[in-house]
Task: inverse folding
């Protein structure tokens, strides 16, 4: 089995939680890929540099200066610090953006209804075989949420999307090559809750497993609602495209949490 | 032949000279590696962030904040911009620091005579085979001058040294593996002069070729002096360690300039 594990930037900003998370990641057996978010460090850096953060409907607009900051902070600082720490834990990590090896291509998001998010990428093409080759060489990719376009732009990209697209492309590359020996792809999202909860205020109310049938029922009963719905919809979309299982779990428990699968 | 080409950060800071240089680099045939310096962008960024640059004998002291800036600017911004531009020129570039794949290890420079340069790395171990594997996969490494230590530190490292150590390690890996088919390693330093000049003020006074014998004579005659001597000494040191030829040339003419070789 190949594990694609996504961690939010917030966890990596605090030295103690970063260490705790990376030790767990290092202990995961078999081939694995880490996708990290950015967190608030880019916002802090923008403030220090006097660059104003513009938001539309709660979403950051990435102007040219913000893009440079995102590239520096996520693609440089956060990525290289994680890579270096993983080496001290015996993991032969290699940091990547989508541009490194040209494996994750995007287009600059078109202006829609007069809203221009700026240098934001919508993923259009992913070369999963590139990551398989790195894994075959004993390397563990550590991916920053930055992609690139055919025109030579770097583009700020949602880290959850990068993680899903990575897992889908790796599954797809295996299918295409008829390479059953590698096993399946599992996609894990680590966040600040124990997993999908039947009571959002009770960390012990974990739903251990969700299938299409149980999901329909959980939504009908109002047990799953709000912001969790797009997360789970995205999980099922990844499963439809060949990922074997999706896990949603707390960053301190990356082999636990909720398992989402088709059957 | 494998080409290891070093370009100073200054050339990359100007969009026109960057484009001109990268187009030439893209046109170089066969397997190749690019090592880039940092330039003044880190100093500019430090000024904007209000971080004081401390110098000892004309050399920058890398404190923790400066190291973070160097990691962001060289390992993030400059490196990823170069990688992305090379993709638009048909080069499948992959950006690396020494930590990515753990291939260039250093130690934090010890305090000597009371002088502490801070987070500066002295290279101790280079895995040339890592770069050969990337080349074998059709990738072109683009290397930022940052290395890492076994303790998990990122370390600011002289870009000329990174280039020499890269070329030496690649030659050494080929020798060890008895891999003659790959050919030889050529190391090229691009800078702001046509090459080694017999008259520093006359760009047409290029010395096309230097060997140990001619070097002794050129020094005795006072034709080569000053800052060029350590450069050429370093070139000969690389040749002694298995690099086939060293070239010193202008950034606008990367296949020209002065060739230095043992025979």
Result:
């Amino acid at each position: 089995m190949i594990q694609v594990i996504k961690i939010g930037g917030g966890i990596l900003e605090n030295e103690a939680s970063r260490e705790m998370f990376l030790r767990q990641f290092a202990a995961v057996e078999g081939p694995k890929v880490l996708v990290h978010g950015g967190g608030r460090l880019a916002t802090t850096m923008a403030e220090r540099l006097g660059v104003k953060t513009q938001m539309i409907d709660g979403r950051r607009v990435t102007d040219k200066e913000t893009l440079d900051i995102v590239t520096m902070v996520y693609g440089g600082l956060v990525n290289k610090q994680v890579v270096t720490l993983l080496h001290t834990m015996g993991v032969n990590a290699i940091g990547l953006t989508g541009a490194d090896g040209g494996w994750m291509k995007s287009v600059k998001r078109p202006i829609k209804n007069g809203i221009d998010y700026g240098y934001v990428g919508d993923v259009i093409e992913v070369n999963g075989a590139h990551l398989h080759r790195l894994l075959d060489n004993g390397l563990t990719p550590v991916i920053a949420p930055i992609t690139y376009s055919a025109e030579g732009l770097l583009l700020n990209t949602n880290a959850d999307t990068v993680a899903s697209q990575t897992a889908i492309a790796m599954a797809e590359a295996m299918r295409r090559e008829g390479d059953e020996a590698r096993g399946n792809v599992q996609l894990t999202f680590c966040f600040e809750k124990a997993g999908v909860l039947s009571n959002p205020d009770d960390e012990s109310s974990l739903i251990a497993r969700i299938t299409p049938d149980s999901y329909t029922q959980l939504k009908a009963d109002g047990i799953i609602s709000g912001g969790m719905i797009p997360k789970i919809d995205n999980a099922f979309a990844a499963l439809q495209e060949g990922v074997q299982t999706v896990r949603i779990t707390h960053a301190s428990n990356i082999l636990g949490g909720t398992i989402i699968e088709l059957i």
